[in-house]
Amino acid sequence: MATPDQNYTDFQKAVKIILHLNKRSVYENNNVSAVVANNGHNGSPSPQPRPNGQQSPPPPSPRDREVCGAIIAIWSSLGRIDQVLTNINTLYINELENGYGAGEGGQHYVPIILFQVHNSVTFLLHKGTHVIESNHEAKWCSLVPVGAPCLVTTTGFRWNLTNDTMSFGSLISTSNEFDPECRSVRIETDRPVLFSYDISKSDPLVIPNK
């Protein structure tokens, strides 16, 4: 898939390629399902005879063709704020172009998860209600509005929001903490909001010493 536009970063080009391949895989799965339903008996396709009398294997099940569930990007800012901002912008562009408010209603939406090496995990929460398991090893967590002001209500944090409007120039929720008494947090937002938390003590990329 050609991505000649130099207005895109390398990361944005990679995301576009992955989403293109994922969309094609979805359609292939649908086509396989239609073949199985139309040609099979009790959901199983009829085997085709071979010249030597052996039976051909059935076509692959839709479950045999994996569809991308998330894009996980491992990155390091190297101290550059512009790299941080452009990665956040990529998450927001993905939400605008492919999210649940896009033309196909998020049919081919694939979330992007940013793993900053030995530091944090970050992802965008779209409009709606989200329940996320608490990470009590995290030193901090944050909610930051992206693109436009958002109305947010939360539970499960040390400092919660109740129908508060977040925007640059007023309130953003940084340096928050998970409530140690709660097993999960609940976040309700009317617009996309960036959720990030510390993984320095639970970094999945760290190999424990034996």
Features:
alpha+beta, 6-stranded mixed β-sheet, 210 residues, thiamine diphosphokinase activity, 4-stranded antiparallel β-sheet, ATP binding
What does this structure look like?
This protein is α+β, with helices and mostly antiparallel strands. It has a domain at 71-101 and 110-198: Rossmann fold. Helix content is 23%, strand content 25%. It is built from two helices and ten strands. The strands form two sheets. The chain has a six-stranded mixed sheet with strand order 1-2-3-10-5-8, covered by helices on one side. It has a four-stranded antiparallel sheet with strand order 4-9-6-7, with no helix packed on it. A hairpin with an 8-residue loop joins strand 6 and strand 7. It is globular, with a radius of gyration of 22 Å. The termini are far apart.
